[in-house]
Specification:
Blueprint lengths: L5 H6 L7 E6 L5 E9 L3 H4 L1 E6 L2 E6 L16 E4 L2 E5 L3 H9 L5 H5 L14 E9 L2 E12 L2 E13 L5 E6 L16 E4 L4 H11 L5 E10 L5 E7 L3
Length: 237
């Protein structure tokens, strides 16, 4: 697969929905992840990311405007030992709890399926990063309906061992805007990963559609030491 510019790719899509990128920094020293959320409704846009332990959770920016917390309030990022879990829903907790009981990433996700938000049936996207003893690997997953048919859940996992410096893969919920929203299809898109954590965060945020973007989480994990550095950007302030 040919690599594309991450920032150009994001600019070209007004509504990718929620997205996960995982890869390796340009200097090769850090495992990198970015998670963003977007929204079209007042309920979806009324959110911020806040830190919780080693991870983050979503929270209503204005609690009085929160209509329905289901599918909106969850923990996108949790850390289990040397593993960092990143997802677009409460399957973060499923993965954390079942992997803590020695099940695999794939086994945990077999207990879940796409979101019950007809007619979109939004895919559940998930990622896991494993940084240990100077080594780094990751996987991305998507659980989706069968072209809008909710009677079948299609499950795909993509594993990446020893990713190259300056290279990442992104997966997101929607191919673009629409009604119903068209689910992501194909394998995660190979992109570049450029700049230090501050430049990378700024460029990803600026590349997301101004009207629809809500929040962004970025983490760089030093592969040699496991030390993590995090940035959070919220449109609501």
């Amino acid at each position: 697969m040919k690599s594309v510019s991450l920032f150009d790719y994001l600019r070209s899509n007004t509504y990718p929905g929620r997205g996960i990128l995982i890869g390796r920094s340009e200097d090769g020293k850090s495992a990198v992840t970015a998670y963003f959320i977007m929204g079209r409704s007042v309920n979806s846009r009324n959110r911020i990311f806040v830190t919780e332990g080693d991870g983050i959770r979503t929270e209503a920016f204005d609690p009085s405007k929160m209509v329905d917390p289901s599918l909106i309030i969850y923990r996108p990022v949790r850390v289990l030992g040397n593993k960092t879990i990143v997802t677009n829903g409460d399957q973060t907790d499923t993965i954390y709890e079942l992997m803590d009981k020695q099940q695999t990433f794939e086994q945990a996700l077999r207990t879940r399926e796409f979101e019950p938000d007809a007619p979109n049936y939004t895919p559940r996207i998930s990622g896991i990063m494993h940084v240990d003893d100077g080594k780094f690997n990751f996987a991305l997953s998507i659980l989706k309906s069968n072209d809008g048919d909710p009677s079948t859940c299609n499950r795909f996992t993509f594993a990446y061992n020893a990713p190259a410096a300056g290279e990442g893969h992104i997966i997101h919920t929607y191919m673009g805007d629409g009604n119903p929203l068209p689910s992501f299809s194909g394998e995660p898109v190979k992109t570049d990963v450029s700049g230090d954590i501050d430049a990378f965060t700024e460029n990803v945020w600026n590349a997301l559609n101004e009207d629809n973007k809500v929040s962004l989480f970025v983490r760089f994990i030093d592969i040699a030491t496991g030390k993590a550095e995090t940035r959070i950007v919220n449109k609501n302030k």
